[in-house]
Amino acid sequence: MNLETLVTIGWNSKRETAFKQLGLEDVCPARIVADHGQKYRIITERGEGWAEMSGRLLHELEEHSAYPAVGDWVAIRLLTSDSQDGVIHGVLPRSSQISRRAAGSIPVEQIVAANVDLLFIVVALNLDFNLRRLERYLIMAWNSGALPVILLSKADLCDDPQRYISEVEEVSPGVQVLAISAMEDWGAEELHHLLKPGVTVALTGSSGSGKSTIVNWMSGQEMQRTQDIRESDSRGRHTTTHREMFILPQGAVMIDTPGMRELQLWDDEGGLAEAFSDISELAQGCRFGDCRHERELGCAVRAALEEGLLDPKRMDNYRRTQRELKFQTAKERRRGKPNKTPSDKKDAPRGKGEQRRRFEVVEWE
Questions:
Q1: φ, ψ for residue 11 (rounded to 5)?
Q2: Measuring CA to CA, which of 37, 96, 162, 342 is 20 to 30 A from 169?
Q3: Contact (CB, 8 A) for 73 and 19
Q4: β-strands 47-53, 73-78 pairing
Q5: C-alpha distances in angstroms, 110 versus 236, 244, 258?
Q6: DSSP H helical segments within the chain, as ranges?
Q7: Other Cβ atoms closer than 10 A to 289
Q8: Could you tell me if 293 and 286 are in contact, meaning their C-beta atoms sit under 8 angstroms apart?
Q9: Full DSSP string of 93-133
């Protein structure tokens, strides 16, 4: 392992500058490969090792969302001159972070993965296919700063993949949609084109959608264990139990994550408006700026519904999700959200165009 390998997995001049600005002595850069609670598996110029946070860093990071997550770049002080293990003394600012709301009554942000360029939303073409669930994943993606790509997996089990592609494209304007099959090697060329050296890809989706199979397929070896889904409802079992990063032969890195039975959103950056950009654009034609799209006169959204230009189910999901996020925000305010630490801050771009331009820069660096 050497600095050239770190560059392959995402190290660049911008992170080099941020690393120096930490002002720490006798440290080296490392990337979090896996999170095992208090212990982290890391990769440095010396290879893979283990690390844990220093007591001082634990004290400084007030919120759990600021703790190192898979994909994070950190500053490590190695235990000895020839050791591969060390202690984490700093976390570099994130270029993006995939977040969800953690389980529980108190609203808490949980980081799924950090510093991700492309987020592969994996949706299986079986009985578990659900457009409304996909819309929630798109909210998470646009909120993160990563560029979403939708992978319709297990396309070999579907009689008419093109029909599903058309349905998905209607609810995900501007997002690349690929129908793939690891069993038949469909879509391999398109995926290989995306997996450039220096690019970080994360996989998300329901249990049984085929995320771990994609890791094995793209790596050319059995890196993740897989198991069959239930035939009765096409639901999968949780094969992947923790988040982990893998270096692919193509030079990119891929982060596999456990399947989500239910995605509780954490949205504070406008992901809702981006995921439902068609409704946002229609709303600009409403007579009133604060139109709720219910009984107001001159509502362009209601007009689109009446004319059959907007799917009522999509509008219902938009309203339901909007209420959910407003309720979450109100709970946060009542709780009194602590001040963010520097490592919480993202310099991720917002908006579809900006996120695409950012990926193009990463691709050709």
A1: -70, 135
A2: 96
A3: yes
A4: unpaired
A5: 23, 15, 13
A6: 3-8, 13-21, 55-60, 131-144, 161-171, 188-194, 211-219, 271-275, 277-283, 300-306, 312-335, 352-364
A7: 7
A8: yes
A9: PBS-EEEEEPSSSS--EEEEEES-SEEEEEEESSTT--HHH
Question: Are 245 and 33 in contact, with CB atoms under 8 Å apart?
Answer: yes
The DSSP letter of residue 295 is S
Q: How many residues does the chain have?
A: 365
Residue carrying the six token digits 């010396």: 46
Rounded to whole angstroms, the Cα distance separating 116 from 95 reads 8
320 exposure class (CB count in 10 Å sphere: 0-12, 13-18, 19+): exposed
- The distance in angstroms from the start CA to the end CA of the chain is 21
Compute the half-sphere exposure of residue 196: CA atoms within 13 Å on the CB side of its CA.
Answer: 13
In which region does residue 324 sit, left (phi positive, over 0), alpha (psi from -120 to 50) or beta (all else)? alpha
What torsion, rounded to 10 degrees, do the Cα atoms 228, 234, 239, 245 define? 110
> Hey, which residues does 97 pair with through a beta bridge?
114
The conformation of residue 207, written as its DSSP 8-state character, comes to T
Beta-strand runs (E) in 116-182? 118-124, 147-153, 176-179
| Distance between CA atoms of residues 199 and 359, nearest Å | 8
Q: What is the SS3 assignment for 91?
A: strand
Q: What's the pTM value of the predicted model, to 2 decimals?
A: 0.84
Whether the Cβ atoms of residue 202 and residue 120 lie closer than 8 Å to each other: yes
* Closest C-alpha among 113, 122, 87 to residue 33: 113
**Residue pLDDT tens, the chain, 365 long:** 566 778 889 999 999 999 999 999 999 999 999 998 889 999 999 999 999 999 999 999 988 889 999 999 999 999 998 899 999 999 999 999 999 887 766 778 889 999 999 999 999 998 889 999 999 999 999 999 999 999 999 999 988 999 999 999 999 988 999 999 999 999 999 999 999 999 999 999 987 888 989 999 999 887 665 555 444 444 545 454 578 999 999 989 999 988 666 677 876 557 888 999 999 999 999 999 899 998 899 999 999 999 999 999 999 999 999 888 888 777 766 666 544 444 444 555 556 666 666 666 555 44
Q: Which residue has the tokens 């990463």?
A: 362
Q: Which pairs count as long-range contacts for 292-297, CB under 8 Å and 24+ apart, including other chains?
A: 293/319
Q: Which two tokens stand for residue 37?
A: 């609670």
